[in-house]
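Entry for the shared binder. Reason: the reviewer on the internal report wants the predicted structure included alongside the sequence.
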Amino acid sequence: MRFFRSSATLMIMVMCMSALTGGCDRTVTQVRESNLATSETSAEVSETEATTEATPTPAPTPTPIPEPEHINVSFIGDCTLADALAWSGAAGSFDAVIEEEGYEYCFQNAASYLEQDDMTLANFEGTITDSTSHLTKEFVFGAPFDYTQILLNGSIEAVNLANNHSYDYLAQGLQDTQDAMDEIGVAWSNQQSVAIYEVRGVKIGMFGIDYVSGDSTSMAYPLIDELKEEGCNIIIASCHWGEERDYSPRTAQVTAAHDLIDYGVDIIVGTHPHRLQPIEMYNGKYILYSISNFCFGGNTGLSDPDSCIVQCEFVMNEDNSAVAEYNLNIVPFSQTSTRPGNDYCPIPYEWGTDDYYRVMERLSWSQEDE
């Protein structure tokens, strides 16, 4: 208050003295009289004295308080960017379509959603390798290094490698896949290695557990501890679990999910059933039991094409040390833009259609845009 009053007084005095005729208004007169009354040595105030009044030192600028960050992460399901070995290169297969359409083809309808977030996490179900030694089983997936451009064109920043196809080409295939992700700058995690992705000072920690191949929840606890020790503010668990073609989680999945949340996970993203399953909120946090496939090169036809992009806004607390609020948005998708069949080009369902509401029903989810 003192600073602003003094400044106004000085400005008014200068204006009055420039008038020469003494025709100052009442406010100026009162200011002059106040100055005369406090003078002990002069009968009148000179212009020099009036203009040499000391200006108070401005108050120090307060340190700005950081605003809580809003971190937006998108989740998509199984991405198998390869043919099954048994029919590699056949008409209508993934390899044949990519050879004709190019690497921008698969995510051309999804990239606009995924480019707007801070990070996209996908379940990468397969390998990037030129190895020829592989497991003996019905479906074996391996892709050349150039196919990593599909991930980059889709604005995918992180992948889970803890699933039942990561070892299709044995340990060498997994190592080649990890090296490929490192080379293109895509973060990867699994049951042996965590990943940390930082956004505006907020650390997002990730790990994966492959229950289908025999992993247990107890394997996750040291990974969560490691992410906490690294100062991660958001912890994401990718869980490959359940039974194929199930539309509901099994009891064991529910128990495991609750245990992971109780131990400090912020959100759980489930894959493997190739179907959508209901979303659960448990202790204020979300469990996505299954978000199905997204871009799935493993089959030339799809018995159920329903999929989605799940977008989670993590609203941080005042010092951005932990999540204060979780907001989900669902974008219903089809895994193919032509039906029947599979053209490996996911496309969003139009709002208000039966397809759109069927996805929401299977997820047991509703939102304001309905």
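Summary line for the report: DSSP finds ten helices and 14 strands in the chain.
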